[in-house]
Amino acid sequence: MLIVSVVFIAAASPAININQYFTPTLFQEVKNNHGNRAEYRVKAWQRLIEDNQDRTELEKLKLVNDFFNKHIEFIDDIKHWHREDYWATPLETLATEGGDCEDFSIAKYFTLNALGISEDKIRMMYVKALEYNQAHMVVIYIPSPGEYPLVLDNINRDIVTANQRRDLKPVYSFNGQGLWVAKAQGLGNKVKQRKGFAPWVKLIKRIEQGQ
């Protein structure tokens, strides 16, 4: 279940270093805990990052969006993790072959960053999915200042500009650099950092621990 909160603590996003993150121990643990298919998915994720460093940014967007939309099944947190709200790491999402819209977005965001796309250009964005009348999360890519961002989503799997997604009402976006209150279909204004709890901070720590 997606719980929208504007309480946020900025924490720098750790880049996934393929030489340190993808170890024989990690693959063995995934295989032991989740089986051969899970190990295959995680190795496919490694190849995605290793083999596509020299692609254009637009090519990287499509590869990453298609990869996670293909390999992950949408499952609500209550059913999947037996928690009301849980932000899974990309490894947890791939190993268990499921996640909600937050998990899709988190996996795409960190994979794009691992492929060399600057954090300045990517954010996760909370939106309201008007057709479903519920909170939703997507990843946005900002080609350059002043341009409409591109939207990576697990509902509409085509990558289009935000102004073409009239089914989404932006609420706010964030990355490790801060929080922006959304305005119309644009990027909105950055707000001062607020003190409080954020699932983002816990997520960062788990990724840094190799989870």
Automatic annotation (TrEMBL):
The superkingdom of the source organism is Bacteria
Q: Which InterPro entries match?
A: Papain-like_cys_pep_sf, Transglutaminase-like_Cys_pept
**Would you tell me the protein name for this molecule?**
Transglutaminase-like cysteine peptidase
**Organism, scientific name:** Motilimonas cestriensis
Its taxonomic path starts at: Bacteria, Pseudomonadati, Pseudomonadota, Gammaproteobacteria, Alteromonadales
